[in-house]
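Trying the structure run again after the queue cleared.
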Amino acid sequence: MTHLFRNRLSYRLTRNTVLLAMAVGLVLNLIQVTVEYHSTRTYMDQDIEALMDISHSPASQIAYNIDTRLAGELLDGMLRHPAVIDARILDTKNRTLSAASRGSGDGSYRWISDLLFGETRRYSTELEVPDLQQIELGQLVITISTNYYGNLFLSRAAFILISGILKSLVLSAMLLVVFYFVLTKPMMRVISSLQDVRNAPEKARLPVPPSHEHDEIGSMVAIINRHLQTVDTSLSQLREVESQMKDYSGKLEREVEDRTREISEKNEALQRGNRALIRAKEDAVRRAQTRARFLASMSHEIRTPLNGVLGMLELALEGNLEPAQRHQLEIAHRAGQSLLSLLNDILDISKVEAGKLDLEVISFDLRQLINECATIHGEQARRKGLKFTTHLETGLANRYLGDPTRLRQVANNLLSNAIKFTDEGTVSIHLEQTPEGIRLEVRDTGIGMSRQELDRIFSPFSQAATDTTRRYGGTGLGLALCQQLVERMHGQIRVDSREDEGTWFTVTLPLPVDESTDRDETEMAEVVETGPTRRHCRILLVEDNRVNQIVASGLLHKLGHEVDHAENGERALAALSLKSYDLVLMDCQMPVMDGYEATRRIRQNPEWKKLPVIAVTANVMSGDREECLAAGMDDYITKPYNRDVLDRMIQRWSTAEGVTDTPPAPGD
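Done. Tokens:
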């Protein structure tokens, strides 16, 4: 209960007010006591001086007449003053003429009086007669005890302090009552009203206490009522939203159920689709593998007889022929070369689509490469009556890093198409260095293409128009292969064409410049390899196909080499054990023992570890070269091959040791 009372606002306000009032009153009382202290001291001095003024004349007459009886009566009368404890008359030599004294008396608070005013005080005055002022009569001396005046001061000070405290207590009681009725009681009514409406705050409003409509309590009640109104509105909105949420929740649950059912059905359908895709993927992989095996098999089977056809035609063209016969054989040889080019394009596109086309990054002379292509196709253009121009910018570097074989393939395709589709006018090739890389441009003034035809020229097995195929021939593989090769080299190929005005192909390739320091050494090595010195070798030809044996033997004999035959790997090993050879041309696909196993057997013999073994095979699919090298073969050429390719390969791998510099004797 006491704790609750002390926590009330009226008590706290009263306490703080009374404490402040008591502090101020205490300061004022202390000031008043101080003033009273000084007043008491002044009163004490004035009272004693008045007593001495009254006694001055009688004392002067007594000293003049030297009347001791009257002096005693005067001094005894002065002792009747409550403060005087000693009175005496002294002569001019400070000798006592008459004296009277009494005790000073003690009191409970004498020490306070002595502390404030001193224990005693002494007053004196000179005695004189008004008519005889020149005569010295002596002094009247009075000694008083300050206890009398100290008691007067202490009683008044105590009254002042006690009355101030009583006033503060009375003020506290009055303020407590006033604050209770003016502040606490109205606040308690408001609090009680709030407690009554806490179960339904949105429906209740607080009453304003009487006589508090315009003060702080009234303002507080008005604010609380406004908040209650806001709470009422918010609760109404909340109930409305809650009702809507319940409806929405029900709809959402139904939609979730529907969506869950749909997702389950779609998931089942997706699983069925995935299973179908897996089966389709497996089927596609099997088909791709089957196609790869088919391409590999067909490539081998086609290249093997094609090698015989081209080889025999090449051997026949080197003989003494009549012009008509030579013309017929040249036509057959060109047809074979076209068939070989078509076969190579099909295989290259298949490799690109399968992601198995590997590009070289070697140093090459770009200017020389384009000049070679321009020389070959320039002759074709001149035979057709076309003007052929070549322009190579002076800002080109000496050498670049890339795949010269594929770049030559792109340039040859573009130049071949330009010459084929141009009946009159000009074919030009332009090469320059740009910030984006190497820019190769091939322009012609041929038949051109429409915008619709430009959209399908890069599609395999398609040409600009159907009559183009009938008029000019071709398979439509060249441009598709060019685009795929350029993209594999991180370049870009663009075409612009107008009907009956010509076509403009632009190839941009980011070829890095070769800045290596061993360029001169590489060139010197190439000079040595291709120098005029020709070595004549003893060669073992391992080939099971009779036609290819005849072709290869004929080419090798014309190159001045000695040739022995072996139909399979077993006979090749037997031939090597009987005779020493400088080089082995090894076919890969043979009965009894193929070329891979035969090469591994050769490498197992310490005497044959350094014997050059060159793979001569019709297998040109991805991985065939690596398989040959892994078996221990030194290099790799593909069928069909011509005499120049065969000669360069033999000269590259022939060594001075055991090799004769003169052709073998006839009949060897």
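The CA atoms of residues 71 and 274 lie 148 Å apart. Worth checking whether this holds up in the mutant runs.
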